[in-house]
């Protein structure tokens, strides 16, 4: 996860090296093609965020930090374009690794990261206040994939918001449906460890922005900071008489073994440890301290060094049986990393409490977590995931805890897992609602129908939680991506809630597919039917479009008709509870009302302002305009 200060001190020791040539039939360089030194190993999460930052550096200044985010389609295409360009120089993409299981002792580190991300979002929220100061239009210019060939400075206005929450799964999605799928793996550990092992075994060059790679044993291998990779189009460089006009790629190689030797060490662990001790020091000071043989914190150093043992077999055999590893290696290859973590925990030998970590959404940090609206879906998903483990003797007390935001902090909250009959019932009700939505909106493109379904679920959550549902303009903005006149935090939060529902649907589908493959016992009919329905979910790039994409896709959509039909469906559900959610014209009201009128409230002794309404306790006193 990176060692503060290490990059600053050791990056100058990188050796500039010409690794590839794009010129056809270049005698000087074509002999290098196919050599082990040209095998590229990629740290997947680091790669995804590098692509994200390269794209956002090309966005225009008039956008807000939220709207400037590359959409998931641009991220996927940018990632593939980057790899294609690397290969055009004669480099071979050998492995792309994604984290699939993180050590439990890094729990504090990851929660601290979540807190820092939340603080960043909260600071931006404070600065931007009520309005995020830009009007969305239907003609936002797309970012070209070639934008990823060069890194660039990110505008200061865009640095205040955390990256797009689904950047990593979006890039993984794109890779899994491309020619690079056979090189891509979600591994039962940290990606950097598998990158290091591949480099140590076979040589090659790791692309990553993780300074931890200085500490790993890469053997004769090396790593390159992704941020330093430049592939400018159309620029030639002369490299001697025999290669005039060659298009070369030159990278700064960081070889930990060579750097350690230059500094008088056998490896860089002792030196790296000095930079984790919480105080500032120069490189000569750190070298001097690292060379002292006597130390009063040997236990602390041993714990630090243990994280950099580049032997995945030891780590895997400690946690998983050979049978579990065999299942995981085949059946969990392209499930999202956060879900992979949960699956791996439930497959581990000594798991009694499995932990699920949610991605940080771009939401209003002053309101309840946007993930709350899909908590029922995730409880259903976790319950299915835990089924095989709970059927085993001795696993009756298995628990799953979810890390979620509560206010300005993060807590681990135990999930009340469903029984098998409850799972069946939930599957049936979900299947019925999805089927009703898809039939009702059959003339609308399928990716938009999933968004309508998500909005339906969000509205249902507000009704069930006895909270005031979103206003008419907010619902329209959520469906069309267009805001009038400005993007507000209310719109941003509703969009995050919709994304929470859509991503939870994706988790349910991936879990159903995994469980069907991982267990010999066939799934119940209701789960099989739901899995078949969820097979129609599009890729993440289509499932969660940007507001600008939505604006373009819904330009000719009759939003009034969509909201009217949605209102009638909500009323059908509300009838069971004796509530009205629509008015006499069939449009959604501001807040649910009881069918039968309440008795008048008793007069209060408190003074009221002239014209103030008397409202039954627990019911909001303001009414939304009817949805048109």
Descriptive account of the structure:
Helix content is 44%, strand content 11%. α15 crosses α16 (420-440), α18 packs across α19 and α19 (489-518) crosses α20 (525-534). It is of the alpha/beta class. The chain has helices at 6-10, 27-30, 44-56, 72-88, 107-128, 167-176, 191-202, 256-263, 269-274, 283-290, 298-306, 312-319, 322-331, 337-347, 375-390, 420-440, 446-464, 472-480, 489-518, 525-534, 540-543, 547-553, 559-574, and strands at residues 15-21, 39-43, 92-99, 184-187, 205-208, 222-225, 248-253, 353-357, 399-406, 409-414, 579-582, 588-594. It has a 5-stranded parallel β-sheet with strand order 4-3-2-5-6, sandwiched between helices. Belongs to the asteroid family. Pfam families: XPG_I_2. InterPro entries: Asteroid, Asteroid_dom, PIN-like_dom_sf. This is Asteroid domain-containing protein.
The radius of gyration computed from the alpha-carbon positions, rounded to a whole number of angstroms, is 27 Å
Our measurement of the CA-to-CA distance between the termini, rounded to an integer number of angstroms, reads 50 Å
Structural class: alpha/beta
Number of strands: 12
pLDDT < 50 stretches? 235-243, 595-628
Strand adjacency order, main sheet: 4-3-2-5-6
- Tally of contiguous helical segments: 23
Please tell me the overall pLDDT.
82
Helicity, in percent?
A: 40-55%
Family: Belongs to the asteroid family.
Region (Disordered): 591-628
Domain Asteroid: 164-417
Pfam families: XPG_I_2
Question: Layout of helices and strands, plus pairs?
Answer:
Layout lengths: L5 H5 L4 E7 L5 H4 L8 E5 H13 L15 H17 L3 E8 L7 H22 L38 H10 L7 E4 L3 H12 L2 E4 L13 E4 L22 E6 L2 H8 L5 H6 L8 H8 L7 H9 L5 H8 L2 H10 L5 H11 L5 E5 L17 H16 L8 E8 L2 E6 L5 H21 L5 H19 L7 H9 L8 H30 L6 H10 L5 H4 L3 H7 L5 H16 L4 E4 L5 E7 L34
Parallel strand pairs: 2-3, 2-5, 3-4, 5-6, 8-9
Antiparallel strand pairs: 1-7, 9-10, 11-12
């Amino acid at each position: 996860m990176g060692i503060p200060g290490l990059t600053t001190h050791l990056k100058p020791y990188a050796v500039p090296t010409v690794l590839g040539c794009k010129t056809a039939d270049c005698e000087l360089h074509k002999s290098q093609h196919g050599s082990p030194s040209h095998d590229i190993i990629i740290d997947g999460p680091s790669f995804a965020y590098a692509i994200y930052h390269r794209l956002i550096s090309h966005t225009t200044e008039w956008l807000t930090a939220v709207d400037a985010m590359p959409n998931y389609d641009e991220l996927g295409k940018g990632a593939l374009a980057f790899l294609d360009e690397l290969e055009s120089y004669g480099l071979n993409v050998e492995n792309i690794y994604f984290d699939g299981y993180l050590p439990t002792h890094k729990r504090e580190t990851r929660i601290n990261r979540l807190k820092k991300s939340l603080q960043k979002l909260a600071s931006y929220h404070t600065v931007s206040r009520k309005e995020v100061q830009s009007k969305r239009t239907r003609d936002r210019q797309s970012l070209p994939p070639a934008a990823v060939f060069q890194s660039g400075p990110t505008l200061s206005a865009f640095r205040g918001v955390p990256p797009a929450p689904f950047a990593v799964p979006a890039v993984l999605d794109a890779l899994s449906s491309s020619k690079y799928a056979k090189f891509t793996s979600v591994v039962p550990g940290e990606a950097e460890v598998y990158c290091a092992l591949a480099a140590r075994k076979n040589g090659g060059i790791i692309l990553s922005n993780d300074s931890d790679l200085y500490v790993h044993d890469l053997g004769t291998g090396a790593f390159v900071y992704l941020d330093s990779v430049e592939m400018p189009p159309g620029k030639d460089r002369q490299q001697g008489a025999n290669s005039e006009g060659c298009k070369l790629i030159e990278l700064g190689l960081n070889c930990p073994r060579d750097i350690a030797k230059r500094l008088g060490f056998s490896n860089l662990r002792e030196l790296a440890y000095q930079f984790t001790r919480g105080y500032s020091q120069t490189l000569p000071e750190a070298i001097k301290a690292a060379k002292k043989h006597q130390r009063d914190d040997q236990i602390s150093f041993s714990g630090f060094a243990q994280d950099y043992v580049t032997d995945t077999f030891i780590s895997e055999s400690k946690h998983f049986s050979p049978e579990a590893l065999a299942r995981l290696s085949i059946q969990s290859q392209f499930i999202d990393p956060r879900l992979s973590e949960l699956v791996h925990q439930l497959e581990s030998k000594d798991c009694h409490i499995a932990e699920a970590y949610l991605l940080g959404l771009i939401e209003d940090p002053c309101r309840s977590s946007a993930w709350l609206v899909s908590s029922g879906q995730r409880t259903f998903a976790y319950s299915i995931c835990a089924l095989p483990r709970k059927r085993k003797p001795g696993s009756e007390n298995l628990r799953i805890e979810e890390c979620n935001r509560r206010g300005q902090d993060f807590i681990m909250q135990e999930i009340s897992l469903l029984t098998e009959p409850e799972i069946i019932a939930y599957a049936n009700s979900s299947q019925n609602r999805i089927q009703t939505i898809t039939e009702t909106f059959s003339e609308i493109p399928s990716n938009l129908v999933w968004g309508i379904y998500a909005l339906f679920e969000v509205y249902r959550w507000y009704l069930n939680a006895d909270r005031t549902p979103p206003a008419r303009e907010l619902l329209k903005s959520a469906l069309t991506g267009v805001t009038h006149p400005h993007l507000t935090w209310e719109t941003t939060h509703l969009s995050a809630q919709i994304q929470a529902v859509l991503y939870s649907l994706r988790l349910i589908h991936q879990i159903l597919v995994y469980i069907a493959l991982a267990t010999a016992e066939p799934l119940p009919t209701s789960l099989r039917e739901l899995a078949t329905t969820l097979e129609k979910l599009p890729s993440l790039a289509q499932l969660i479009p940007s507001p600008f994409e939505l604006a373009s896709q819904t330009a000719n959509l009759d939003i009034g008709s969509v909201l009217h039909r949605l209102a009638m469906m909500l009323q059908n559900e509300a009838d069971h509870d004796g509530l009205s959610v629509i008015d006499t014209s069939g449009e959604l009201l501001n807040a649910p009302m009881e069918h039968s009128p309440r008795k008048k409230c008793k007069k209060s002794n408190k003074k009221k302002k002239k014209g103030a309404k008397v409202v039954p306790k627990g019911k909001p006193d303001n009414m939304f305009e009817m949805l048109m």
